[in-house]
Amino acid sequence: MHPGKYCRTYTAKQLEAIAHEQIQTLKKQGLFTVPVDIELIVEKIHGMQIDVQRGLKETHHIWGMIGHCKDTNQFLILIDENLFDLDSLHHVYRMTVAEEFAHGLLLGDAIRAVTSADELQKHHDWHTHDRNAKRLAAALLMPAENVSKDARAYYTELVNITGFGDPNSVKKYLVKQLAERYDVSLASMRFRLNEWPIKIFDKIDQAMKDGLDFLE
């Protein structure tokens, strides 16, 4: 059967539920931390391997990829060696590992069925599958429940210092603090805060308009 037969798409709600399940597994085992230890999820919880691949970015124009070893029946995530060596790419490394892991969760059967590394990327709806993996990766590294809780706490601290006159500054500081706490890029956190189910920026606009030092 063609690997594309195993591909399915997911709604945002379904992807958030998958991420929530993974985070709950960590919490039940007493392994949940902030920032989220994505390597622990990949290797300890799911038994996947992470290894270095020289020239992956240069040759294939990608930072990472996931494959399946039929001999061991194990998924292998390959990461370009520069992501291990350059501190400036640390956030890229974490997001890449999370995204390749997400591909493994969402497209595991399809990955097992492929005969070449780029076969799935030729699927007519690959951009949708790739977008799903990126969304799941963000939800894993920035769990909605925890990020929302921290955002509310930081918001109260910030407006008690700055007042209610400058929502954009509050948002900027909030993004910075949360990005540092969850060990992700500013751009990733900014995007995450502005999407469902968090959408904290909308709550900030309304709360500051109403002069509230808490977010509903």
Describe the protein:
- There is one protein chain.
- The chain has two domains: 3-141, Arc Repressor Mutant, subunit A (Orthogonal Bundle); 144-209.
- It is built from ten helices and three strands, in the order H-H-E-H-E-E-H-H-H-H-H-H-H.
- It has helices spanning 12-28, 38-45, 56-60, 81-85, 90-113, 126-141, 144-162, 167-182, 186-193, 200-209; strands at 49-53, 64-69, 74-80.
- A three-stranded mixed beta sheet has the order 1-3-2.
- Strand 2 (64-69) and strand 3 (74-80) form a beta hairpin.
Which value, in Å, is the CA radius of gyration?
A: 19 Å
Number of strands: 3
| First-residue to last-residue Cα separation | 50 Å
The sequence of SSEs as H and E is: HHEHEEHHHHHHH
Number of helices: 10
Instruction: Give the strand order of the largest sheet, numbering strands 1, 2, ... along the chain.
Output: 1-3-2
Strand % is 5-15%
In CATH, the architecture of the largest domain is: Orthogonal Bundle
Q: Which word captures the global form?
A: elongated
Helix content: 55-70%
Question: What number of structural domains do the residues give?
Answer: 2
Low-confidence stretches at least 5 residues in length (pLDDT < 50)?
Answer: none
| Sheet/helix structural class | mainly alpha
Largest sheet: 3 strands, mixed
- The first-level CATH class name of the largest domain: Mainly Alpha
Kindly report the CATH topology of the largest domain.
Arc Repressor Mutant, subunit A
- Mean pLDDT across every amino acid position: 90
Please write out the topology:
Layout: H1 12-28, H2 38-45, E1 49-53, H3 56-60, E2 64-69, E3 74-80, H4 81-85, H5 90-113, H6 126-141, H7 144-162, H8 167-182, H9 186-193, H10 200-209
Helix pairs in contact: 1-6, 5-6, 7-8, 8-9
